[in-house]
Amino acid sequence: MLVVMQSHATEEQVRAVCECIESLGLRAHPIPGVARTAIGITGNRGEVDTGALESMPGVAECIPVSKPYKLVSREAKQENTVVRIPTPCGEVTLGDRAVAVIAGPCAVETREQAFAIAERVKAAGARLFRGGAYKPRTSPYSFQGLREAGLKILAEVRDTFGLGIVTEAIDNESLDLVENYADVIQIGARNMQNFSLLKRAGRALKPVLLKRGMSATLDEFLMAAEYVLSEGNYQVILCERGVRTFADHTRNTLDLSVIPAAQRLSHLPIVVDPSHGTGRRNKVLPLSRAAVAVGADGILVEVHNDPARALSDGPQSILPEEFEQLVRETGAIAAVLGRTLN
Ligand code: PEP
Ligand code: MN
Fold it and tell me: Are the folds of 2-63 and 83-341 the same?
């Protein structure tokens, strides 16, 4: 259920409606929009009796939300959510006309490695740096990440190069630490349905980049985002990173058709990760171009200065010079669409 406030409704009127909703044992989620504020109601098992709410001052109407993802849905909020990431080199936004570029290694391996890559991606125009300190690996014997030592290196990258930091939390314990160091908390594909982690991310005070599970439908993906919003964190960026199919020419099948589909159903920004989406270095550039052409709000790519010796995901990591080309070409495509690279 959604309580739509009149465009001239005051803050006190919005607050009074929220209090009324909470007094019914339900949860109120004010969703400010450009034209008007809507208040999402969750926690009800059956229909909400809207009698009392409808007659409150400032209320325009009460409308049912047909989708199971109440807060993530465009029914709840028509205009795009703009996620704002403050970084030392200014605010990076996702969900507006700018296309964000997030680049860096799969994993932070050493200070030298992270610095060498950060220097190059920054020079090429990136403002957000990615790099895992906690790595969810298929094998327990593979490199698991430098953990807090990796987060400390990322903090140094932030201070030295002015880049915003995107890094993954793999469980509630790591999320406590990641929240302190990162500008954006990444939730990986394998954790898309780790509901306790999603709820914890929903209580975090930093934006969340939520990757699509490798066999998740769009509805499941949006429901996972709903977990984060339902706990109060509305700063969520969706990320398509490829799904499992029978195709064996790539590691995953990058589902670019999910971009317009998600944008139709949800107001949240969505970015594309062509690195995990293909698993092959030579496919990252063409699919980055395609991602911008299809209307993605950003791209997330793995870049390594010595991919042959990378401790994870070397085969899909592009070289810094390839990243420079990627920025040039995706920037040209963005310009055709009246957008800019961020
Ligand atoms: C990553 O970004 O390095 C990663 C582990 O991605 P995913 O969760 O999409 O596999
Ligand atoms: Mn990776």
Answer: no
- Ligand 1 centroid–CA 276 distance in Å is 7
- Encoding tokens for residue 286? 């063409």
What pLDDT, in 10s, does the model give residues 157-174?
999 999 999 999 999 999
pLDDT in tens, 248-298: 999 999 999 999 999 999 999 999 999 999 999 999 999 999 999 999 999
Q: Atom of ligand 1 at shortest distance to CA of 132?
A: 3
Q: What pLDDT shows up at residue 312?
A: 97
Query: In this structure, which residue's CA is closest to atom 4 in ligand 1?
Result: 188
Whose CA is closest to atom 1 on ligand 1? 106
Mean pLDDT, residues 198-208 taken together: 98
User: What is the position in ligand 1's atom list of the atom closest to the CA of 312?
Assistant: 3
Domain 2-63: top CATH class: alpha beta
The CATH number for 83-341, chosen from 3.40.50.880, 3.20.20.70, 3.40.50.1000, 2.30.170.40, is 3.20.20.70
* Mutation choice for ligand 1 from 211, 254, 317, CB with most ligand atoms inside 8 A: 211
Closest atom, ligand 1, to C-alpha of 211:
9
Domains in the chain: boundaries = 2-63, 83-341
- For residue 113, the model assigns a pLDDT of 98
Q: Does residue 65 have a pLDDT over 90?
A: no
Which protein residue has the closest C-alpha to ligand 1 atom 3? 106
Q: What residues flank ligand 1, with Cβ below 6 Å?
A: 106, 132, 136, 188-190, 211, 241, 276
